[in-house]
Specification:
By secondary structure, the protein is of the alpha+beta class. It has four helices and 23 strands. It has four domains: 95 residues, conserved putative lor/sdh protein from methanococcus maripaludis s2 fold (Beta Barrel), CATH 2.40.420; 85 residues, Efflux pump adaptor protein, beta barrel domain (Elongation Factor Tu (Ef-tu), domain 3); 50 residues, no CATH class; 75 residues. 23% of the residues lie in helices and 38% in strands. A hairpin with a 2-residue loop joins strand 18 and strand 19.
Length: 333
């Protein structure tokens, strides 16, 4: 609704008036940019020479798939050595168990001394500890080997590759920028009138190039205090791996046509218990007629009153205070 004022007599602009203007949000398009819901700079947890990195920018990679690997030759050699040593300890343990069980039977019959029995028991215990130590060493080497590779944290694609095979990777130095394909967001800006109609999880329609998607509002926030408006993030799911960051998108919301109309109280007057307004009717060739029109009202908020019936979009009404100054029923627009 807009408020205007002017000084010419018998012209609409001579009086305080408002024109009912209800925005048609159902036809409004919000333009935005596609962004991934998850992204990360991928890096190694150790240093070394990259020996495996077969992917290029834009390549799709499944969750858990190895993206890159460092030279792990020394770790593999150490792992085999420790595994062989573990096998030897296990063989010795099996033999020692058999020997101990024989001695234990003889010890119970009093055929051998306590010292011999204790010595066999102690040797079995030492082997068990050595086996446990070997398993811990192998687990440690496996962790080191895991540090030697980078895997995809989720389904996605490489947006930017920073290093290639043969390069020396440093700890926490990114080798690629990885973007999730499991979910995308469209960031749009909306005004104060629109934000009052939106809430988290509201549905939306999104059009990107020639494809249509369904989405839901995932986030709403105020922009920087120096700017008016709100940021709305609409989440969509792409199961075709078609979407990419930076794509342009159009977003539509399903606003209901249940706009509540409020006008200033001074435009409403009461007569015999009924409420009226002065409306410009029968508009033809830039002229209209002033008519007293009965209305149905609702609640009052902040010096404004809700109109339930009697007014429609683009109706023009004149302030009750100005009506007494009109000498003719016709008025120029």
């Amino acid at each position: 609704m807009f408020l205007f004022g002017c000084t010419k007599y018998e012209n609409l602009n001579d009086f305080n008036y408002i024109k009912i203007n209800i925005p048609k949000y159902e036809n409004k398009i919000f333009h935005g940019i596609v962004k991934s819901s998850n992204n990360a700079n991928l890096s190694f947890q150790t240093e070394g020479k990259i020996t495996y990195f077969p992917f290029a920018d834009g390549d799709f990679i499944k969750k858990g798939q190895t993206i890159a690997r460092l030279d792990g030759t020394l770790y593999e050699i150490r792992k085999k050595e420790e595994q062989n040593r573990l096998k030897q300890y296990v063989i010795q343990q099996d033999k020692q168990k058999s020997y101990y069980h024989r001695l234990d039977l003889l010890h119970k019959e009093g055929a051998i001394s306590d010292n011999d029995w204790e010595s066999a028991y102690y040797e079995l215990k030492v082997l068990a500890e050595q086996i446990q130590t070997q398993k811990e060493k192998i687990n440690y080497i496996n962790k080191e080997l895991d540090y030697n590779k980078v895997t995809a944290p989720y389904d996605g694609y490489i947006a930017k590759k920073y290093q290639s095979v043969g390069a020396i990777a440093k700890i926490a130095n990114p080798i690629a920028f990885f973007i999730s394909s499991e979910g995308f967001l469209v960031d749009i800006m909306v005004d104060e009138n629109t934000i009052n109609k939106l809430k988290i999880n509201d549905s939306a329609k999104i059009k990107i190039l020639d494809k249509n998607y369904q989405g839901n509002i995932a986030h709403i926030s105020k922009t920087d205090m120096n700017f008016s408006g709100y940021v709305v993030k609409v989440k969509i799911k792409d199961t075709t791996n078609y979407l990419k960051e930076g794509m342009s998108a159009d977003v539509y919301f399903n606003f209901k046509n249940d706009e509540k109309l409020f006008i200033p109280i001074e435009y409403v007057f009461e007569e015999n218990g009924k409420k009226y307004i002065y409306k410009v009717a029968n508009i033809k060739e830039n002229t209209g007629e002033i008519e007293k029109t009965k209305i149905t009202t609702g609640k009052i908020m902040n010096n404004e009153i809700e109109i339930l019936d009697g007014l429609k979009n683009e109706d023009i009404i004149i302030s009750n205070d100005n009506y007494q100054n009109i000498t003719h029923k016709k008025i120029k627009l």
